[in-house]
Write a structure and sequence with these properties.
By secondary structure, the protein is an all-alpha fold. The chain has two domains: about 100 residues, no CATH class; about 80 residues. Helix content is about 70%, strand content about 0%. It contains twelve helices and no strands. Helix 6 packs antiparallel against helix 7.
């Protein structure tokens, strides 16, 4: 049944064999295995994850589209792996499109999917788009990007993704504002902020930020610069 194929696809994923994972999916449908839909979703998600690990973003996106075509349950794992594949390939438009496709599904409530889309924008210095996504999940006002009312709960990774997007584009003022507005800033946040100051030749601010990080972060001091 589907469970057997799901296990086979998962083995291929762990082995980094994206072709094998896709072949097992094809065998599953050719055999017209009668089983639980949930197991079929697991099999597809494992194949998408295998493609994501092997930088095959087109195949990952195609598999997620196939799931919709076959009326399979598309969940947060489907979208997070697909968005991550696009992020690694610097395909920010595709990542945002997948986020929009999540629509009213439960996946659009997950910060993991949003974090991936924001990071994808940041990787290509699309800082304005990254901030649009960040504002959509942190603003109390309703957003057209969210499938239904009720904000996504941002995490420290969400903040770091937005700060990093601004830092890569040398938008140090925006990076600073985001950092000051975050209650969960960590070493990664400070590192991105210092990088933004470095690009903007704001050495004094970089030194002050590093000093502030050393005062707030307990334990050994990281070698940030």
């Amino acid at each position: 049944d589907y469970s057997w194929y799901a296990a086979a696809v998962n083995r291929c994923k762990k082995a980094g064999d994206w072709r094998g994972a896709c072949e097992e999916l094809c065998r599953m449908w050719r055999a017209a295995a009668a089983g639980r839909q949930g197991a079929a979703t697991v099999a597809h998600n494992a194949a998408i994850s295998a493609c994501e690990r092997c930088a095959r973003w087109r195949r990952a996106v195609a598999l997620s589209a196939e799931m919709l075509h076959r009326c399979l349950e598309v969940d947060v794992f489907t979208y997070s792996a697909s968005v991550s594949a696009c992020e690694k390939a610097r395909q920010w438009q595709r990542a945002v499109a997948l986020l929009s496709a999540a629509g009213c599904r439960e996946a659009d409530r997950s910060p993991v999917v949003w974090n991936g889309a924001i990071s994808a924008c940041g990787a290509t210095e699309q800082w304005a788009q990254a901030l649009t996504l960040f504002d959509a999940i942190t603003s109390p006002a309703p957003s057209s990007l969210l499938g239904r009312e009720g904000a996504v709960q941002p995490t420290v990774i969400t903040c770091n993704a937005a700060v990093g997007a601004c830092a890569r584009a040398a938008q140090w003022q925006l990076a600073l504002l985001l950092s000051l507005g975050s209650s969960t800033a960590d070493v990664v946040t400070y590192g991105s902020l210092i990088g933004a100051f470095y690009k903007g030749s704001s050495w004094e601010l970089a030194a002050l930020t590093l000093d502030g990080m050393h005062q707030k972060q307990p334990g050994p001091k990281p070698n940030t610069i």
